Amino acid sequence: MKRLVFILLTFIVGGGFCVAAVAAVYAQEPSEEYLMTLQGANAESYITLMHEGSQEGKLVAAIRLGELGDGSPEVIEALVYGLGQGTFFVVRQYGKVTNDYWDVRAASAKSLGQISDPSSLKDLYYTLRYDPDKFVRGSAAYAIGKIGEKKSVYYLKRIIETSSTTGPDDDLILACVEALGDIGDQSAFTTLVEVVRGKHKRSLKLAAMESIRKLKF
């Protein structure tokens, strides 16, 4: 954003100052484009970009906030805000969604996983269950696994048990299976065994076997 600055141009006349003209110039303030290319900006700048930027700006903010690793309440709040983009403020044209923001939501979820603050779990559980995009739901599962709380096993198991075994939910199931392995709690054992023995494709079965190896008994 540019700020308009007025400069008074003066001349010395008879020992005094005389205003000759007023010139208007623009002083450059940090813009969205600037923040999107800057590597060294602080968390506050990216929080502002998350709330006020375009879709591309919000995406950059979500990624950079995760990279900074700042677990302050303000950063968590900004990323939780990112989780809701495009779900409550949807613009439709000719019956089609034009601002789905799925990328912002997915990046926000993954950054919450990088920061690993349990205070974000409630919002991640909601995203895991209700987000309209399965890739975003998978990103939430990833984050839940990285946070690593035992209580999260219930929510991941529920998604696996209620998802289709015929293909369309494979990526989501895989994310949940891997998250259960990251958490490593033995309460996930039965669900993982059911994946191995069920009608899932081979790659899911192998992932479930790997997660079983990570469980702590």
Question: What does the model show?
Answer:
By secondary structure, the protein is α+β, with helices and mostly antiparallel strands. The protein is 58% helix and 13% strand. It has a two-stranded antiparallel ribbon with strand order 1-2. A two-stranded antiparallel sheet has the order 3-4. Strand 3 and strand 4 form a beta hairpin. Helix 3 packs parallel to helix 5 and helix 8 packs antiparallel against helix 9. The longest helix is centred in the N-terminal third of the chain and has 14 residues. The protein is globular, with a radius of gyration of 25 Å.
What's this, in brief?
The protein has 217 residues and is an alpha+beta fold. The chain has helices spanning 32-37, 43-52, 55-68, 73-83, 102-115, 121-130, 134-147, 153-162, 170-183, 189-197, 202-214, and strands at 2-13, 16-28, 92-93, 96-97.
What's the layout of helices and strands?
Layout: E1 2-13, E2 16-28, H1 32-37, H2 43-52, H3 55-68, H4 73-83, E3 92-93, E4 96-97, H5 102-115, H6 121-130, H7 134-147, H8 153-162, H9 170-183, H10 189-197, H11 202-214
Antiparallel strand pairs: 1-2, 3-4
Helix pairs in contact: 2-3, 2-4, 3-5, 4-5, 5-7, 6-7, 7-9, 8-9, 9-11, 10-11
Keywords:
11 helices, alpha+beta, 3 domains, two-stranded antiparallel ribbon, Leucine-rich Repeat Variant
Q: Overall pLDDT, averaged?
A: 85
Tell me the name of the CATH homologous superfamily of the largest domain.
Answer: Leucine-rich Repeat Variant
Tally the helices: what do you get?
11
Element pattern in H and E: EEHHHHEEHHHHHHH
Strand content: 5-15%
Specify Rg, calculated over alpha carbons. 25 Å
Low-confidence stretches: 1-15, 17-29
Helix content: 55-70%
